[in-house]
Amino acid sequence: MVAIVDYGVGNLFSLVSSLRALGVDAVVSGDKETLIRAEKIILPGVGAFGDAAEKLFSSGLAETLQAEAKKGKPLLGICLGMQLLFDRSYEYGEHKGLGLIEGSIRPIEEVIPSSLKIPHIGWNALHFKGNSPIFKYLKEGDYVYFVHSYYGAGCEKSVIATAEYGAFLTAAVQNGNVYGCQFHPEKSGEVGLKILKAFCELEEKKE
Amino acid sequence: MITKRIIPCLDVKNGRVVKGVNFQGLSDVSSPVELGKYYGERGADELVFYDITASAEGRALFTDILKEVASTIFIPLTVGGGINTLNDFDRVLKCGADKVSVNSGAIKDPNLIYEAAKRYGDQCVVLSVDAKRVNGEFRVFAKGGREDTGMNALEWIKRGVDNGAGEIVLNSIDTDGVKGGFDLAMLGAVTRLVSVPVIASGGAGRAEDFVTLFKELPKVDAGLAASIFHFGEVKIEELKKILKENGISVRL
What we know:
Distance between the termini of chain B: 13 Å
CATH topology of chain B: TIM Barrel
Structural class of chain A: alpha/beta
Strand order of the largest sheet of chain B: 1-3-4-5-6-9-10-11
CATH superfamily of chain B: Aldolase class I
Strand content of chain A: 25-35%
CATH architecture of chain A: 3-Layer(aba) Sandwich
CATH topology of chain A: Rossmann fold
Radius of gyration of chain B: 17 Å
Helix content of chain B: 25-40%
Largest sheet of chain A: 8 strands, mixed
Number of strands of chain A: 14
Shape of chain B: globular
Strand content of chain B: 15-25%
Largest sheet of chain B: 8 strands, parallel, barrel
Number of strands of chain B: 11
Distance between the termini of chain A: 20 Å
Strand order of the largest sheet of chain A: 2-1-3-4-14-13-12-9
Largest interface: A-B, 30 and 28 residues
CATH class of chain A: Alpha Beta
CATH architecture of chain B: Alpha-Beta Barrel
Oligomer: heterodimer
CATH class of chain B: Alpha Beta
Number of helices of chain B: 10
Number of domains of chain A: 1
Number of helices of chain A: 6
């Protein structure tokens, strides 16, 4: 069973539907026991980092996610969910993240030319670094759908894919069993489904 | 590189796609789900569903269909038509829409954009504008293009973006239905004015019109059309190939 973390942030309809289309047993839950029982966890999210982090920490879900990640359970953060995996974010102030990926979340305007529009929205090509198992069904240059104004910085060690938008922006990260996609696999057509499929096929690392 | 987007628009009335469609291999050509899937498989970058139903029953039927579409097709979905309140936003977002397009609803209540952007984020709010030349200026028309609001379209769009609209769909009534190409003058005026994505609508008759659009106005992000796709006059997969041959970045 794959648990999608429900902490009152974002629209989960498409994510649940895409997992069901893949035949995956997906459960939306904000219950810690369910997350602990799940074989894999997906952390979604749309909106502001500060609010979302506050919800994760005040509900105690943050500790559960950190503990499960430490146990070796595959965890995938999507969009804001990926950003929450980082140490901290500078979106409207400074906020603490889950600390599962080294680095921080910063405004993309710091690195892209001012002639480009913000948010970075639309279909963009993935350029891979290394061979992450979640991209095993993809090929270089496959397109995925992005919507974001902030990006993962200082995370060179963890970057497994970038997308070019006036600069090479972090598109996906991995630190062991912890994965994050800045783009929306659940909105990226067949390519996105292939990423979710590969994630759902990961084996839990046994200690 | 971010790609230019090609967006078919489906008008839905009482749960069915209006305007006759004639495609081989489609069992039910007026089913929004079937047609949406057909376009999705052929390279549509996004789909727009416009609810043109007036009745409450039709509205409920539309949201049922939207759910079915969003459970089958995993590309961005924009929904418009009959969006007048935050409850309307909520209703369609819960059914799988990613973006919500406001037109008359924002004219009736200009706060709608601000409130919706605050609650759901700018990227979720699309301001759709029907505009037409009147006495040397671009005017906003309401009620599906039948009523002159007297408002200047450029001022209206600027205000919409300032209030949080994350994307503009500009439909030129002057070129709509003529099939002689997009309204480059009107679109150019808007792309010079705002920095959010601009989607061109109205006037496309053939693939070359899209080439001209993106070559002449590189700041336009997407081209939207309905009947030329529905009638198969322009096939999305061929259109994207032609765009690529002309050096325009597209998702193939």
